[in-house]
């Protein structure tokens, strides 16, 4: 009965109630009265049907949100916009929570207990790449500060004689946001690089590890640290030319993974899933650390599934997937993956769900402005949002009316819910961000209808808002558990770091989508603006945009290195937005064509647990 209920269709809500009833009773059975085999089947009951069916799984259509085609049951379930709450919810049972807590204490006791500097740094780095650092933030910060203090007493002699430890320490300090500490470290890193540069042609493992650490560290450079950036490029060139036959397959895979995309630019949850497997293949991996990483990943993943099920019910009941909006992209799961890319920690579920809703609306609005609306209609649409009154939408075409009512209702609900909990009114801030976004969309529509191609600077001045990151990052600030009246009143529209983060997202988007969007009839993007302004070829323009991305990453690094206490909790979100965009747009438009890498990314982050 429990398994069968997952094949319920719309209108069969009674089956959903039966499902909940059965699940509660299965959880509270007297297991001593049952056979061991039956108990095991119950423990895995939520996944049993899926596991059996996976052998005959043809696939699913991500753009229609997990279209399952299962031979065993002869079922083709179309447009199922939910991930069932039963799948792997057993991972949240008390025994797994207790197991994780015990493992956390074991790992906590290991932090800082390694004998050498490089061993201590590599342990901290493993914690971070395994996605566990959020459990040990204070311990990691204390250890790094202790290391810095110890090295200052020794006049940095250890650091300057080891490129690997020097580069790794520099990167960890910047990643953890330890202010002022990483500034002198860059000088020590450059000094160490100059000493070891002449050895780069040697294929010794410690030399290659140093080059790899230097390469990764260079992507945290800020403006004015061109020497570090050049050192990173030199390290990259040498890494591409090493004698691969002299190293283990595992080490070569880690090098190739880094050269494909640096760690600082990677979506953290996707990298964590890859690194768990990679770490387990290392000769010197710590089994306790690996066990905790696997268990924690699955437990966090089960939270994602529950959130996505809630979102799928919201999306299905919202009414935006309808005949009036049949030209709009239906991308709920992709949008949720993007929200995970922005903020993955399990305790930020409220923000993830809000971000997903925001991105769903943004996609709908973008398609209305690009495909459907006349200029006069779009002006009315923008005015309706500016007035922020549901009854003001009555004069709009049906598709815009449906959309505006959905946006206003949802944002009002989010603000009301937060106000009831915190007694703070965040609606004016959310409204300001939405109005700015709509105005930026309208300006692009005017450019298109007038046949106007702006300069690149003029385009970017508007495009960092039209990409909509200002809404998501404003929501991240406003939905914080730590928000106070003072911090709410201090919110600035918009700090430089929001602009830089959003600009990177926009440029990533343009590199993969501009050609297709121009063909379908859209405002010129950054590439076309540069081509016209400089009379350049598309190839030259693309190369320039890639350089511009690197420049804005350095600007963002600089801002995050000196960020105020009010925004300190959101450093990861500021980095998360462009990382999520990079994830979708690295090889193609993974948002519009979500049946390629995006499908695999959804599988490994949200769907498939790690075997324990």
Q: What's the helix and strand layout?
A:
Elements: H1 13-27, H2 36-43, H3 45-54, E1 68-70, E2 75-77, H4 94-110, H5 117-129, H6 137-153, H7 157-160, H8 163-175, H9 182-196, H10 205-218, H11 226-239, H12 249-260, H13 268-280, H14 287-318, H15 332-342, H16 349-372, H17 375-387, H18 398-422, H19 427-449, H20 456-466, H21 469-478, H22 485-489, H23 496-520, H24 526-534, H25 538-561, H26 571-585, H27 597-607
Antiparallel strand pairs: 1-2
Order of helices and strands: HHHEEHHHHHHHHHHHHHHHHHHHHHHHH
Strand content: under 5%
What is the C-level CATH assignment of the largest domain?
Answer: Mainly Alpha
Mean pLDDT: 85
Distance between the termini: 28 Å
- Largest sheet properties: 2 strands, antiparallel
Coarse shape: globular
The fourth-level CATH homologous superfamily of the largest domain is Farnesyl Diphosphate Synthase
Total of helices: 27
SSE-based structural type? mainly alpha
Radius of gyration: 25 Å
**Strand order of the main beta sheet, please?**
1-2
Question: Can you describe this structure?
Answer:
This protein folds into 3 domains: 4-92, no CATH class; 111-291, Glycosyltransferase; 302-607, Farnesyl Diphosphate Synthase (Orthogonal Bundle). Helix 15 crosses helix 26 and helix 24 (526-534) packs across helix 25 (538-561). Helices cover 66% and strands 1% of the residues. With 612 residues, the protein is an all-alpha fold. The protein is built from 27 helices and 2 strands. Residues 44-88 have low confidence and may be disordered.
